[in-house]
Amino acid sequence: MTTVLSILPMMVCAFWSIVLILDWSITHDKLRLWLWQFMVVAMLLYVGHAVFFNHYTSIVPFTNTLYCACNLLVFPLYHVYIKGLSVPHYLDNRRQQRHDRCILFLPALVISFIIGILYLMMSSAERSDFIENYLYHNDFSGLHGTTFLQAVVHQIAKLCFAIQVIIIFILGFRNLRQYKRFIDNTYADTENKRLEKVQTILILFVGGVFLAFVSNIIGRWRFLDDTSLLAIPSLFFSTLLFMIGYVGSRTVFSISNVNDNELTPSSPSIAENDNEQTTSSLAVSLEQLMDERQLYLQHDLKISDVAALLYTNRTYIQHTIQELSGESFTKYVNRKRIEYAIELQKKHPEYNIETIATRSGYTHLGTFYRNYKIVTGKTPAKASIL
Protein backbone atom coordinates (compact mmCIF):
# COMPACT_ATOMS: atom_id res chain seq x y z
CA MET A 1 0.00 0.00 0.00
CA THR A 2 2.90 2.38 0.74
CA THR A 3 4.18 1.91 -2.81
CA VAL A 4 0.76 2.69 -4.31
CA LEU A 5 0.28 5.81 -2.18
CA SER A 6 3.80 7.06 -2.90
CA ILE A 7 3.40 6.84 -6.69
CA LEU A 8 -0.28 7.91 -6.94
CA PRO A 9 0.36 11.68 -7.39
CA MET A 10 3.12 10.87 -9.90
CA MET A 11 0.74 8.70 -11.93
CA VAL A 12 -1.93 11.41 -11.95
CA CYS A 13 0.63 13.89 -13.31
CA ALA A 14 1.81 11.34 -15.89
CA PHE A 15 -1.79 10.81 -17.06
CA TRP A 16 -2.45 14.53 -17.53
CA SER A 17 0.97 15.04 -19.14
CA ILE A 18 -0.04 12.58 -21.87
CA VAL A 19 -3.55 14.04 -22.27
CA LEU A 20 -2.34 17.64 -22.44
CA ILE A 21 0.49 17.05 -24.89
CA LEU A 22 -1.86 15.14 -27.19
CA ASP A 23 -4.37 17.98 -26.90
CA TRP A 24 -1.66 20.54 -27.67
CA SER A 25 -0.53 18.56 -30.73
CA ILE A 26 -4.03 19.04 -32.15
CA THR A 27 -4.94 22.55 -30.95
CA HIS A 28 -1.46 24.16 -30.65
CA ASP A 29 -2.89 26.04 -27.67
CA LYS A 30 0.02 27.60 -25.79
CA LEU A 31 -1.86 27.43 -22.49
CA ARG A 32 -2.17 23.64 -22.86
CA LEU A 33 1.60 23.48 -23.45
CA TRP A 34 2.30 25.54 -20.32
CA LEU A 35 0.01 23.37 -18.22
CA TRP A 36 1.77 20.30 -19.67
CA GLN A 37 5.12 21.75 -18.54
CA PHE A 38 3.68 22.18 -15.05
CA MET A 39 2.45 18.56 -15.00
CA VAL A 40 5.80 17.18 -16.20
CA VAL A 41 7.70 19.07 -13.48
CA ALA A 42 5.15 17.99 -10.85
CA MET A 43 5.55 14.38 -12.03
CA LEU A 44 9.34 14.60 -11.64
CA LEU A 45 8.85 16.09 -8.18
CA TYR A 46 6.75 13.09 -7.15
CA VAL A 47 9.33 10.74 -8.64
CA GLY A 48 11.57 12.10 -5.88
CA HIS A 49 8.82 11.39 -3.34
CA ALA A 50 8.38 7.83 -4.59
CA VAL A 51 12.11 7.13 -4.43
CA PHE A 52 12.25 8.50 -0.88
CA PHE A 53 9.28 6.53 0.45
CA ASN A 54 10.39 3.30 -1.21
CA HIS A 55 13.94 3.54 0.19
CA TYR A 56 15.82 3.56 -3.11
CA THR A 57 18.69 5.23 -1.29
CA SER A 58 21.28 4.53 -3.99
CA ILE A 59 19.65 7.06 -6.33
CA VAL A 60 18.45 9.52 -3.66
CA PRO A 61 21.31 12.01 -4.34
CA PHE A 62 20.10 12.37 -7.95
CA THR A 63 16.35 12.32 -7.23
CA ASN A 64 16.69 14.63 -4.24
CA THR A 65 18.51 17.18 -6.39
CA LEU A 66 15.77 16.83 -8.98
CA TYR A 67 13.12 17.10 -6.26
CA CYS A 68 14.56 20.36 -4.88
CA ALA A 69 14.64 21.87 -8.37
CA CYS A 70 11.08 20.82 -9.20
CA ASN A 71 9.77 21.90 -5.80
CA LEU A 72 10.92 25.45 -6.60
CA LEU A 73 9.56 25.27 -10.16
CA VAL A 74 5.97 24.05 -9.76
CA PHE A 75 4.50 27.26 -8.34
CA PRO A 76 6.28 29.57 -10.83
CA LEU A 77 5.06 27.39 -13.70
CA TYR A 78 1.48 27.53 -12.43
CA HIS A 79 1.84 31.29 -11.97
CA VAL A 80 2.94 31.69 -15.60
CA TYR A 81 -0.06 29.59 -16.64
CA ILE A 82 -2.44 31.81 -14.63
CA LYS A 83 -0.91 34.93 -16.19
CA GLY A 84 -1.51 33.43 -19.62
CA LEU A 85 -5.15 32.88 -18.70
CA SER A 86 -5.82 36.27 -17.14
CA VAL A 87 -3.34 38.98 -18.19
CA PRO A 88 -4.03 40.81 -21.49
CA HIS A 89 -1.52 40.16 -24.32
CA TYR A 90 0.75 38.06 -22.05
CA LEU A 91 0.58 35.04 -24.37
CA ASP A 92 2.04 37.12 -27.21
CA ASN A 93 4.59 39.01 -25.11
CA ARG A 94 7.64 36.75 -25.34
CA ARG A 95 9.92 39.35 -23.83
CA GLN A 96 7.80 39.52 -20.67
CA GLN A 97 7.59 35.73 -20.57
CA ARG A 98 11.39 35.39 -20.72
CA HIS A 99 11.76 38.05 -18.02
CA ASP A 100 9.29 36.27 -15.71
CA ARG A 101 10.83 32.86 -16.27
CA CYS A 102 14.36 34.12 -15.60
CA ILE A 103 13.33 35.66 -12.29
CA LEU A 104 10.99 32.88 -11.17
CA PHE A 105 13.16 29.94 -12.24
CA LEU A 106 16.50 31.32 -10.98
CA PRO A 107 16.16 30.08 -7.34
CA ALA A 108 15.41 26.54 -8.54
CA LEU A 109 18.38 26.46 -10.90
CA VAL A 110 20.87 27.96 -8.43
CA ILE A 111 19.84 25.93 -5.39
CA SER A 112 19.56 22.61 -7.24
CA PHE A 113 22.97 23.24 -8.85
CA ILE A 114 24.56 23.83 -5.42
CA ILE A 115 22.84 20.72 -3.98
CA GLY A 116 24.07 18.61 -6.89
CA ILE A 117 27.66 19.88 -6.50
CA LEU A 118 27.62 19.21 -2.74
CA TYR A 119 26.45 15.64 -3.35
CA LEU A 120 29.35 15.15 -5.76
CA MET A 121 31.78 16.53 -3.16
CA MET A 122 30.62 14.06 -0.51
CA SER A 123 32.14 10.68 -0.02
CA SER A 124 29.89 7.62 -0.17
CA ALA A 125 29.82 7.46 3.65
CA GLU A 126 28.94 11.16 3.93
CA ARG A 127 26.08 10.78 1.47
CA SER A 128 24.73 7.84 3.46
CA ASP A 129 24.97 9.81 6.73
CA PHE A 130 23.22 12.82 5.21
CA ILE A 131 20.41 10.76 3.71
CA GLU A 132 19.85 8.73 6.86
CA ASN A 133 20.20 11.54 9.41
CA TYR A 134 18.80 14.61 7.65
CA LEU A 135 16.49 13.39 4.87
CA TYR A 136 14.96 10.45 6.71
CA HIS A 137 15.03 11.77 10.29
CA ASN A 138 15.45 15.57 9.96
CA ASP A 139 18.36 15.33 12.41
CA PHE A 140 21.27 17.78 12.24
CA SER A 141 23.31 16.03 14.93
CA GLY A 142 26.27 14.18 13.51
CA LEU A 143 26.41 16.40 10.43
CA HIS A 144 29.57 18.35 9.79
CA GLY A 145 31.50 19.87 6.94
CA THR A 146 29.90 19.22 3.56
CA THR A 147 26.94 17.28 5.01
CA PHE A 148 26.10 20.15 7.37
CA LEU A 149 26.39 22.66 4.49
CA GLN A 150 24.07 20.46 2.42
CA ALA A 151 21.50 20.52 5.24
CA VAL A 152 21.76 24.32 5.42
CA VAL A 153 21.16 24.62 1.66
CA HIS A 154 18.10 22.38 1.98
CA GLN A 155 16.77 24.68 4.73
CA ILE A 156 17.38 27.69 2.48
CA ALA A 157 15.45 25.92 -0.27
CA LYS A 158 12.51 25.46 2.10
CA LEU A 159 12.63 29.15 3.04
CA CYS A 160 12.76 30.19 -0.63
CA PHE A 161 9.78 27.95 -1.32
CA ALA A 162 7.76 29.54 1.50
CA ILE A 163 8.53 33.08 0.27
CA GLN A 164 7.82 32.04 -3.30
CA VAL A 165 4.41 30.60 -2.41
CA ILE A 166 3.29 33.75 -0.60
CA ILE A 167 4.37 36.08 -3.42
CA ILE A 168 2.95 33.94 -6.22
CA PHE A 169 -0.34 33.39 -4.40
CA ILE A 170 -0.81 37.14 -3.94
CA LEU A 171 0.09 37.88 -7.58
CA GLY A 172 -2.00 35.02 -8.96
CA PHE A 173 -5.04 35.88 -6.86
CA ARG A 174 -4.74 39.54 -7.88
CA ASN A 175 -4.53 38.64 -11.59
CA LEU A 176 -7.60 36.41 -11.36
CA ARG A 177 -9.60 39.06 -9.46
CA GLN A 178 -8.72 41.74 -12.02
CA TYR A 179 -9.68 39.35 -14.80
CA LYS A 180 -13.04 38.58 -13.11
CA ARG A 181 -13.73 42.31 -12.65
CA PHE A 182 -12.98 42.93 -16.31
CA ILE A 183 -15.25 40.08 -17.46
CA ASP A 184 -18.08 41.24 -15.18
CA ASN A 185 -17.87 44.75 -16.64
CA THR A 186 -17.62 43.56 -20.25
CA TYR A 187 -20.05 40.66 -20.72
CA ALA A 188 -23.65 40.14 -19.66
CA ASP A 189 -23.20 36.37 -19.92
CA THR A 190 -20.15 35.27 -17.95
CA GLU A 191 -20.84 31.53 -17.98
CA ASN A 192 -17.52 29.65 -18.42
CA LYS A 193 -15.62 32.95 -18.67
CA ARG A 194 -14.74 33.84 -15.07
CA LEU A 195 -12.03 31.23 -14.30
CA GLU A 196 -13.53 30.80 -10.82
CA LYS A 197 -12.46 27.14 -10.71
CA VAL A 198 -8.86 28.16 -11.41
CA GLN A 199 -9.07 30.61 -8.48
CA THR A 200 -10.47 27.87 -6.23
CA ILE A 201 -7.64 25.53 -7.24
CA LEU A 202 -5.07 28.24 -6.46
CA ILE A 203 -6.51 28.51 -2.93
CA LEU A 204 -6.48 24.71 -2.57
CA PHE A 205 -2.92 24.68 -3.90
CA VAL A 206 -1.82 26.98 -1.09
CA GLY A 207 -3.78 24.80 1.35
CA GLY A 208 -1.80 21.86 0.03
CA VAL A 209 1.44 23.75 0.58
CA PHE A 210 0.39 24.33 4.20
CA LEU A 211 -0.21 20.59 4.49
CA ALA A 212 3.27 19.98 3.07
CA PHE A 213 4.78 22.38 5.62
CA VAL A 214 3.03 20.54 8.42
CA SER A 215 4.33 17.26 7.01
CA ASN A 216 7.88 18.63 6.99
CA ILE A 217 7.53 19.82 10.58
CA ILE A 218 6.25 16.39 11.61
CA GLY A 219 9.04 14.85 9.57
CA ARG A 220 8.68 12.85 6.35
CA TRP A 221 10.21 9.87 8.05
CA ARG A 222 7.10 9.56 10.27
CA PHE A 223 5.07 8.72 7.16
CA LEU A 224 7.32 5.80 6.22
CA ASP A 225 5.76 3.23 8.55
CA ASP A 226 2.28 4.73 8.88
CA THR A 227 0.19 4.06 5.78
CA SER A 228 -2.87 5.91 7.11
CA LEU A 229 -0.78 9.02 7.73
CA LEU A 230 0.81 8.81 4.25
CA ALA A 231 -2.65 8.46 2.69
CA ILE A 232 -3.66 12.00 3.73
CA PRO A 233 -1.14 14.01 1.63
CA SER A 234 -1.10 11.37 -1.13
CA LEU A 235 -4.87 11.46 -1.72
CA PHE A 236 -5.09 15.24 -1.23
CA PHE A 237 -2.38 16.07 -3.78
CA SER A 238 -3.55 13.37 -6.20
CA THR A 239 -7.05 14.89 -6.14
CA LEU A 240 -5.73 18.43 -6.43
CA LEU A 241 -3.47 17.59 -9.37
CA PHE A 242 -6.31 15.76 -11.10
CA MET A 243 -8.52 18.85 -10.63
CA ILE A 244 -5.81 21.09 -12.10
CA GLY A 245 -5.52 18.86 -15.16
CA TYR A 246 -9.27 18.45 -15.57
CA VAL A 247 -10.12 22.15 -15.19
CA GLY A 248 -7.22 23.12 -17.45
CA SER A 249 -8.29 20.70 -20.15
CA ARG A 250 -11.88 21.97 -19.95
CA THR A 251 -11.04 25.68 -19.93
CA VAL A 252 -12.08 27.09 -23.30
CA PHE A 253 -12.20 30.81 -22.55
CA SER A 254 -9.40 33.08 -21.34
CA ILE A 255 -8.24 36.64 -21.82
CA SER A 256 -6.85 35.65 -25.24
CA ASN A 257 -10.43 35.11 -26.47
CA VAL A 258 -11.36 38.74 -25.77
CA ASN A 259 -11.31 41.06 -28.78
CA ASP A 260 -8.54 43.64 -28.83
CA ASN A 261 -11.06 46.50 -28.97
CA GLU A 262 -12.54 45.24 -25.69
CA LEU A 263 -9.09 45.20 -24.06
CA THR A 264 -8.06 48.69 -25.23
CA PRO A 265 -8.88 51.29 -22.55
CA SER A 266 -11.52 53.66 -23.90
CA SER A 267 -11.25 57.42 -23.44
CA PRO A 268 -13.78 60.17 -24.14
CA SER A 269 -13.71 61.58 -27.66
CA ILE A 270 -13.68 65.30 -28.41
CA ALA A 271 -17.33 65.21 -29.44
CA GLU A 272 -18.28 63.57 -26.17
CA ASN A 273 -16.34 66.15 -24.18
CA ASP A 274 -17.99 69.00 -26.07
CA ASN A 275 -21.40 67.44 -25.50
CA GLU A 276 -20.70 67.18 -21.74
CA GLN A 277 -23.10 64.33 -21.34
CA THR A 278 -23.78 63.98 -17.65
CA THR A 279 -24.06 60.72 -15.81
CA SER A 280 -27.70 61.41 -14.97
CA SER A 281 -28.72 62.03 -18.59
CA LEU A 282 -26.80 58.99 -19.75
CA ALA A 283 -28.52 56.95 -17.05
CA VAL A 284 -31.92 58.03 -18.42
CA SER A 285 -30.85 57.08 -21.95
CA LEU A 286 -29.50 53.76 -20.75
CA GLU A 287 -32.70 52.86 -18.90
CA GLN A 288 -34.83 53.86 -21.90
CA LEU A 289 -32.70 51.75 -24.22
CA MET A 290 -32.88 48.76 -21.92
CA ASP A 291 -36.61 49.00 -21.20
CA GLU A 292 -37.90 50.02 -24.63
CA ARG A 293 -35.71 47.74 -26.75
CA GLN A 294 -35.32 45.06 -24.07
CA LEU A 295 -31.65 44.88 -24.92
CA TYR A 296 -30.98 42.72 -21.87
CA LEU A 297 -32.71 39.79 -23.59
CA GLN A 298 -29.92 39.65 -26.17
CA HIS A 299 -27.66 36.66 -25.59
CA ASP A 300 -23.96 37.40 -25.04
CA LEU A 301 -24.60 41.13 -24.80
CA LYS A 302 -21.41 43.17 -24.30
CA ILE A 303 -20.98 46.59 -22.76
CA SER A 304 -19.45 47.81 -26.03
CA ASP A 305 -22.74 46.96 -27.79
CA VAL A 306 -24.64 49.23 -25.41
CA ALA A 307 -22.02 51.98 -25.72
CA ALA A 308 -22.26 51.90 -29.53
CA LEU A 309 -26.05 52.27 -29.43
CA LEU A 310 -25.76 55.26 -27.11
CA TYR A 311 -22.88 56.84 -29.12
CA THR A 312 -20.57 56.83 -26.12
CA ASN A 313 -17.84 54.50 -24.80
CA ARG A 314 -17.48 51.64 -22.37
CA THR A 315 -15.98 53.79 -19.64
CA TYR A 316 -19.01 56.09 -19.52
CA ILE A 317 -21.46 53.16 -19.49
CA GLN A 318 -19.52 51.35 -16.78
CA HIS A 319 -19.35 54.50 -14.66
CA THR A 320 -23.06 55.22 -15.22
CA ILE A 321 -24.14 51.72 -14.18
CA GLN A 322 -21.94 51.96 -11.10
CA GLU A 323 -23.47 55.32 -10.14
CA LEU A 324 -26.99 54.19 -11.02
CA SER A 325 -27.08 50.86 -9.18
CA GLY A 326 -23.66 50.15 -7.69
CA GLU A 327 -23.48 47.02 -9.87
CA SER A 328 -21.18 45.59 -12.47
CA PHE A 329 -22.46 45.35 -16.05
CA THR A 330 -23.25 41.63 -15.74
CA LYS A 331 -25.19 42.12 -12.47
CA TYR A 332 -27.11 45.04 -13.95
CA VAL A 333 -28.18 43.07 -17.04
CA ASN A 334 -29.01 39.93 -15.07
CA ARG A 335 -31.16 41.93 -12.65
CA LYS A 336 -33.09 43.27 -15.64
CA ARG A 337 -33.50 39.73 -16.96
CA ILE A 338 -34.80 38.40 -13.66
CA GLU A 339 -37.26 41.30 -13.31
CA TYR A 340 -38.51 40.40 -16.80
CA ALA A 341 -38.73 36.71 -15.79
CA ILE A 342 -40.85 37.61 -12.76
CA GLU A 343 -43.27 39.51 -14.98
CA LEU A 344 -43.43 36.54 -17.34
CA GLN A 345 -44.30 34.26 -14.44
CA LYS A 346 -47.17 36.56 -13.47
CA LYS A 347 -48.53 36.95 -17.00
CA HIS A 348 -48.00 33.36 -18.11
CA PRO A 349 -48.30 30.97 -15.17
CA GLU A 350 -48.60 28.12 -17.68
CA TYR A 351 -44.95 28.57 -18.74
CA ASN A 352 -42.48 26.10 -17.25
CA ILE A 353 -39.15 27.20 -15.78
CA GLU A 354 -37.18 26.33 -18.94
CA THR A 355 -39.43 28.53 -21.08
CA ILE A 356 -39.18 31.40 -18.60
CA ALA A 357 -35.38 31.12 -18.57
CA THR A 358 -35.06 30.98 -22.36
CA ARG A 359 -37.41 33.93 -22.94
CA SER A 360 -35.53 35.93 -20.31
CA GLY A 361 -32.27 35.72 -22.24
CA TYR A 362 -30.64 32.68 -20.61
CA THR A 363 -29.13 29.73 -22.43
CA HIS A 364 -28.07 27.88 -19.26
CA LEU A 365 -30.78 26.91 -16.79
CA GLY A 366 -28.26 26.77 -13.94
CA THR A 367 -27.27 30.40 -14.57
CA PHE A 368 -30.94 31.41 -14.52
CA TYR A 369 -31.51 29.64 -11.18
CA ARG A 370 -28.41 31.20 -9.65
CA ASN A 371 -29.26 34.76 -10.72
CA TYR A 372 -32.92 34.33 -9.75
CA LYS A 373 -31.84 33.31 -6.26
CA ILE A 374 -29.42 36.27 -6.02
CA VAL A 375 -32.02 38.86 -7.08
CA THR A 376 -35.14 37.53 -5.31
CA GLY A 377 -33.77 35.33 -2.54
CA LYS A 378 -36.02 32.51 -3.81
CA THR A 379 -35.83 29.79 -6.42
CA PRO A 380 -38.03 30.23 -9.54
CA ALA A 381 -40.23 27.27 -8.55
CA LYS A 382 -40.95 28.63 -5.08
CA ALA A 383 -41.53 32.17 -6.38
CA SER A 384 -44.08 30.94 -8.92
CA ILE A 385 -46.13 29.32 -6.14
CA LEU A 386 -46.43 32.56 -4.15
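That was protein one. Protein two is written in the same sequence-then-structure order:
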Amino acid sequence: MPGGRNTDLTLQQRRLVLRSAHLRRTLAGQAAELRAPLALIDTGWAVGRWLRQNPYAVMGPVVLLAALRPIRTLRWMGCVLRGWRMFRRGARWLASTARSRH
Protein backbone atom coordinates (compact mmCIF):
# COMPACT_ATOMS: atom_id res chain seq x y z
CA MET A 1 0.00 0.00 0.00
CA PRO A 2 2.10 2.86 -1.23
CA GLY A 3 -0.64 5.46 -0.64
CA GLY A 4 -1.03 4.50 3.04
CA ARG A 5 2.68 4.85 3.67
CA ASN A 6 2.65 8.31 2.11
CA THR A 7 -0.22 9.39 4.36
CA ASP A 8 1.57 8.06 7.45
CA LEU A 9 4.72 9.97 6.55
CA THR A 10 2.74 13.15 5.92
CA LEU A 11 1.00 12.85 9.30
CA GLN A 12 4.29 12.19 11.03
CA GLN A 13 5.84 15.21 9.32
CA ARG A 14 2.96 17.45 10.45
CA ARG A 15 3.28 16.18 14.03
CA LEU A 16 7.01 16.86 13.99
CA VAL A 17 6.49 20.38 12.60
CA LEU A 18 3.95 21.13 15.36
CA ARG A 19 6.25 19.70 18.02
CA SER A 20 9.16 21.73 16.68
CA ALA A 21 7.07 24.93 16.82
CA HIS A 22 6.07 24.13 20.40
CA LEU A 23 9.69 23.49 21.41
CA ARG A 24 10.79 26.78 19.80
CA ARG A 25 8.14 28.71 21.79
CA THR A 26 9.20 26.96 25.00
CA LEU A 27 12.85 27.74 24.36
CA ALA A 28 12.04 31.40 23.61
CA GLY A 29 10.18 31.67 26.92
CA GLN A 30 13.04 30.13 28.85
CA ALA A 31 15.58 32.35 27.11
CA ALA A 32 13.55 35.43 28.03
CA GLU A 33 14.01 34.56 31.72
CA LEU A 34 17.79 34.68 31.24
CA ARG A 35 17.81 37.99 29.40
CA ALA A 36 18.02 40.22 32.53
CA PRO A 37 20.78 38.25 34.33
CA LEU A 38 22.84 38.02 31.12
CA ALA A 39 22.42 41.77 30.52
CA LEU A 40 23.71 42.41 34.05
CA ILE A 41 26.73 40.20 33.39
CA ASP A 42 27.40 42.04 30.11
CA THR A 43 27.26 45.35 31.96
CA GLY A 44 29.74 44.05 34.53
CA TRP A 45 32.14 42.98 31.79
CA ALA A 46 31.79 46.41 30.13
CA VAL A 47 32.56 48.18 33.42
CA GLY A 48 35.58 45.92 33.93
CA ARG A 49 36.89 46.70 30.44
CA TRP A 50 36.37 50.42 31.01
CA LEU A 51 38.21 50.31 34.35
CA ARG A 52 41.05 48.39 32.75
CA GLN A 53 41.33 51.07 30.05
CA ASN A 54 41.01 53.93 32.60
CA PRO A 55 42.95 52.91 35.72
CA TYR A 56 43.22 56.52 36.90
CA ALA A 57 39.46 56.56 37.42
CA VAL A 58 40.05 54.17 40.32
CA MET A 59 43.39 55.52 41.51
CA GLY A 60 42.18 59.12 41.84
CA PRO A 61 39.44 58.47 44.40
CA VAL A 62 41.67 56.01 46.29
CA VAL A 63 44.45 58.59 46.59
CA LEU A 64 41.95 61.26 47.66
CA LEU A 65 40.46 58.93 50.28
CA ALA A 66 43.95 58.02 51.51
CA ALA A 67 44.82 61.69 51.90
CA LEU A 68 41.60 62.53 53.74
CA ARG A 69 41.25 59.45 55.94
CA PRO A 70 44.52 57.49 56.08
CA ILE A 71 43.64 55.10 58.94
CA ARG A 72 40.30 54.07 57.42
CA THR A 73 41.98 53.67 54.03
CA LEU A 74 44.62 51.35 55.48
CA ARG A 75 41.90 49.22 57.09
CA TRP A 76 40.01 49.00 53.80
CA MET A 77 43.16 48.22 51.86
CA GLY A 78 43.76 45.28 54.20
CA CYS A 79 40.26 44.00 53.45
CA VAL A 80 40.77 44.51 49.73
CA LEU A 81 44.08 42.65 49.83
CA ARG A 82 42.54 39.72 51.70
CA GLY A 83 39.66 39.64 49.23
CA TRP A 84 42.06 39.69 46.29
CA ARG A 85 44.08 36.83 47.76
CA MET A 86 40.92 34.78 48.31
CA PHE A 87 39.83 35.49 44.74
CA ARG A 88 43.19 34.41 43.31
CA ARG A 89 43.26 31.27 45.47
CA GLY A 90 39.76 30.38 44.30
CA ALA A 91 40.68 31.04 40.67
CA ARG A 92 43.74 28.78 40.94
CA TRP A 93 41.65 26.08 42.60
CA LEU A 94 39.02 26.26 39.85
CA ALA A 95 41.71 26.13 37.16
CA SER A 96 43.35 23.09 38.72
CA THR A 97 39.98 21.36 39.12
CA ALA A 98 39.15 22.04 35.46
CA ARG A 99 42.55 20.70 34.34
CA SER A 100 42.20 17.54 36.42
CA ARG A 101 38.84 16.74 34.79
CA HIS A 102 40.35 16.73 31.30
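The helical segments are 2-53, 56-68, 70-101. Keep this in mind for the problem set.
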